[in-house]
Each structure stands twice: as C-alpha cells, then as structure tokens.
Amino acid sequence: MPERSFQNISLDLRDSVATLTLNRPPLNILNIQTLQEMNEAIESLNKKSGVRVLVVTSEGEKAFSAGVDVAEHTKDKVKEMVDIFNQFFFLLEDVDGVTIAAVKGAALGGGCEVAMACDLIFAADNLKIGQPEIKLAVIAPIACAYLPRLIGLSKTNELLLSGDLIGAEEALRIGLINKVVSLDSFEQELQSFVKRFSSNSLVGIKHTKKSIRLGLKDSYPQSLEKIGQLYLRELMDTKDANEGLSAFLEKRKPSFKDI
C-alpha cells in the first residue's frame, strides 16, 4: 500500500518489499525537492521493521535518472544540493534490507550514483550508464568514493576521466551491474529477482551487510576478528539465527520473524 503522498516520488510497501519510485519522467531529474522527498522516504523506512528489500526505480523507460538538476548546481545553490544529496547516501547506507536499483534507460551522473550506491543493480537492456561530469569540468564525488570498490581503479579511471557512457552488456562485464533483462520482460523478471532476497530473514541480511562492510574497512585479520565477534555476540543471540539452524537440523523450512 502507498506509504504517503509525495510530489516527485512514490513510496509503496507490500509485505516485506518497499519500492521508491522517481516520478519525474521522462528524465527523472533529481532536483532539491526530489532529493528531500527521497531522504524523507528512506528515513521513514529506516524506522520500520520487517523491510527486507528496498527497490529504487523510476517511471518511464527513457531514463532511470539523467542526474541532478544543473540549474540547482550553481554557486549559490550547490552547497544545499550537495548536502541533501549526500544525506541520501548516508540514509541508504543505514537500510538494513537489500537495496536494489531497478534501472531502465539512462542512469547518468547523480542517477548513476544513486544506482551504484544500492547493494545490487538490476537493469534493462536499454541501459546507458556513466558519469559525464568531467565534460563540464566538475567531479562526481559519490562515484569517486564508490566506483573503485565496485569495478577497480583502472576502470574507474577510464569512466570518470573520459565521461563516456557504457551499455548494459559492458556494465555487466565489468561488474558494475548484477543482471540484464529484456525491457519487455523487465517487471516480471524484477519480481523474480526480488524474491531471491525477500525470502531471507532480515536478521541474516542485516548482519551479512554489516559484515561485508567490516571486511572492506580493515586488514584481513582485523576484519575477521570484528566479524567473528559480530557473529558470536550479536547474530547468535537472535531468534532467527537459532530458528534457521534448528530448521536445518530438523529438516524443515524455517519460519523467520526478522528478530
């Protein structure tokens, strides 16, 4: 059911799956008001329990988002724009569930950054993705932070320093996106993709995401020590972890409560 009414986005929650939809077709430009609404939506979801998957998508087939509003990126507005934009990524990082960018058409600049900040990118075969900021003599701060972790330094240098756009198959090949499907079957395939994650316990999802991030922060021995402590002191105190293990030993399907 719809969570509340927004002007530039919509937020829908059905069972354990939330869907945030950019609703400014055909290009779904990210202006300050849209970003504020996106932040409010994510903030409200982070206060709810039981949201196993968040899908970030858009209306229309031409563009997931062609990026931030250049008219609001001028010297007098750029600080407000950057602060609000950065807040979205901080809030997205706090989402316990799996975050999936469901992308059709162009994902450019800030639109590309929104997609890459999600845990997974599910794309239609009409995808065009990239960071063309260099062509305006500016940088893509979020991409500079995220892309090296996703596709390595060499490919990051190539994409950010050229400003070139790439298609779906190339994005899949270099590991930027997770799956490509035909535009005609996009919605049906997306539902199947989401179910792969929404059937899992939120407890397991949350602690897996936390452990992966710990693995990126420190050396291998330090990371392993911290992840081990999380496993023993946090995860094994949860009902779902014990239910999952019991179900396996009893040869039955687990009944998870996300606690």
From TrEMBL:
SUPFAM superfamilies listed in its UniProt record: ClpP/crotonase
Domain of life: Bacteria
Keywords: Isomerase
Entry's Gene Ontology molecular function annotations: isomerase activity
Record flagged with keyword Repressor: no
Gene3D superfamilies per UniProt: 2-enoyl-CoA Hydratase, Chain A, domain 1
InterPro entries, sorted: ClpP/crotonase-like_dom_sf (IPR029045), Enoyl-CoA_hydra/iso (IPR001753)
GO biological process, one term: fatty acid beta-oxidation
Keyword Isomerase: yes
Stored PANTHER family: ENOYL-COA HYDRATASE, MITOCHONDRIAL (PTHR11941:SF54), ENOYL-COA HYDRATASE-RELATED (PTHR11941)
Protein name: Enoyl-CoA hydratase/isomerase family protein
